[in-house]
Amino acid sequence: MKNSFLVVLTLIGIQQINAQFTRRDSLQGGLRVERTSYDVKRYNLNITINPEQKSIKGFNEISFEILAPIQKIQLDLFENMKVDSIVWNKKKLNYTRDNDAVFIDFPEKLTLKSNHKLKFYYSGNPTIAKNAPWDGGFVFSKDSAGKDFIAVAVQGTGASLWYPVKDSQSDEPDNGASIKVAVPNGLMNVSNGRFLGSQDLKNGYTRWDWEVKNPINNYTITVNIADYVHIQDKMPDLDLDYYVLRENEAKAREHFAEVKPMMECFQSKFGRYPFWEDGYKLVETPYLGMEHQSAVAYGNKYKKGYRGFDLSGTGVGMFFDYITIHETGHEWFGNSITSMDIADMWIHEGFTTYSETVFIECIKGYDDAMKYINGQSRNVRNDRPIIGQYGVNNEGSGDMYYKGSLLLNTLRHIIADDEKWWQIIYDYSETFKKKIITSDTVIDYFNKESGLNLTPIFRQYLYTNQVPYFMYKIKGDNLYYSWDNVNEDFNMPIDIEFDGEKIRLQPTVKEQKIKLKKLDKKNFKVFSNQFFVKIKEGN
């Protein structure tokens, strides 16, 4: 992470960084000793949600291990939510609030490797999203029968918007979580993991209990409340469950037929579904979608493409449901393999966007896959670097999706050995399964497994907003070529075709030439669909 941080500093500038971010950003995104001194082992969430009041009341029991002796720790809860009490060893603890951070004081220093539990009681009205999932918060809506239809999405905004938590991607509860949510009778709550049962509380509410066996990102812990119908399906090694509005049962049974071929493709390319112990669910939501672990939020209204149109503009994206495929891809990339800091969110979004192309190649073949991924390039803005600022809860450019995916397609064709490429991708998914990593981890891994120095290429695409220009000119039988708009050490090869033969060139920022007998534009082309570059002809 240190090297990446230095690169970002040189790109953005220290003065700009200081001006851009607030104390609240640092408290949410930083890793000070009050966070790094303990490791979360488990969350046990037990809450009541009142749809009429749009309120939450309950507690989170947090189990943790001390990694360094400390007397004060940081948890997080949005400042508009009330801290009712924090209890440890039957004692109420003192605390102070600073923006969304809650600093908890213990009456004695907690010793190294000691294990503890505290119950954090809270209540309040959580933020309502204006435009979920892009704008974090709750969505309180109704189905066609007038029944409550409620869900939450908080990626980037922070899970502490609705429950007390160590709100950092750097720490997941190693021993999973339980999510117990009481909702008015006649409604169901669907959360992550396995359903353990429900209990009528005899007060007009029923509590729905769910259990997660795996480590889980705090922003993917979720609630989904509606009059759901449960559809059960199964693969040989995986339970498939769909929770949909009663009115959509027939549509869902037909539409979700693509789940099995998707799972077969992804498991062949990325390894076994990482959370098989917790099962796989699609849960209908009143917003578009989100990668909630083992409970994927689905709101694409049973349409093909993205809301009924193709983001690639090629037509290829209209044979599958974008939300089903993309959000499920996150189970491997984002939920299983997680970036330590959201500045490295391309680790989630670039690989997951690439999974769409992988699915197309599994079903339709290479040519359609290349058509789709290159069509996505029209969505690349090159507005700022893909990697954001570390330590201040800052994501980089939205180009992390399409440019990140195109970077992976470029790496595939640099390696130029599909058997080796798919093995690298498979082993990457398995090597870092259920682990928290950084961009440097990814770069080091791909360098090692490819046997190539890909670092200058990663730096170009991740840390700058400059797309490489392949410059060329034809003079007689000579092809002159070089890279432009790149870092000085940019070392990417590129392939051309001459008279039906593929030739690999090794351009640098210095002009080179190759002699090709009877060279002209008719018998020469650059494989620009395999490398994310711009082609520019000189005189």
Entry keywords:
single chain; about 550 residues; alpha+beta; eight-stranded mixed β-sheet; five-stranded mixed β-sheet; 13 helices; 29 strands; globular; disordered N terminus
Main beta sheet, described?
Answer: 8 strands, mixed
Mean pLDDT: 95
Q: Count every helix, treating DSSP H or I runs of 4 or more residues as helices.
A: 13
Secondary structure: number of strands: 29
Amount of beta strand:
25-35%
C-alpha Rg, in Å? 25 Å
Q: What can you tell me about this protein's structure?
A:
A hairpin with a 5-residue loop joins strand 9 (137-142) and strand 10. Helix 11 runs antiparallel to helix 12 (439-450). The strands form seven sheets. The chain has an eight-stranded mixed sheet. It has a five-stranded mixed sheet with strand order 16-17-18-20-19, with helices on one face. Strands 9-10-15-12 form a four-stranded antiparallel sheet, with no helix packed on it. The chain has 13 helices and 29 strands. By secondary structure, it is an alpha+beta fold. 25% of the residues lie in helices and 32% in strands. The model is unreliable at 1-19 (pLDDT under 50).
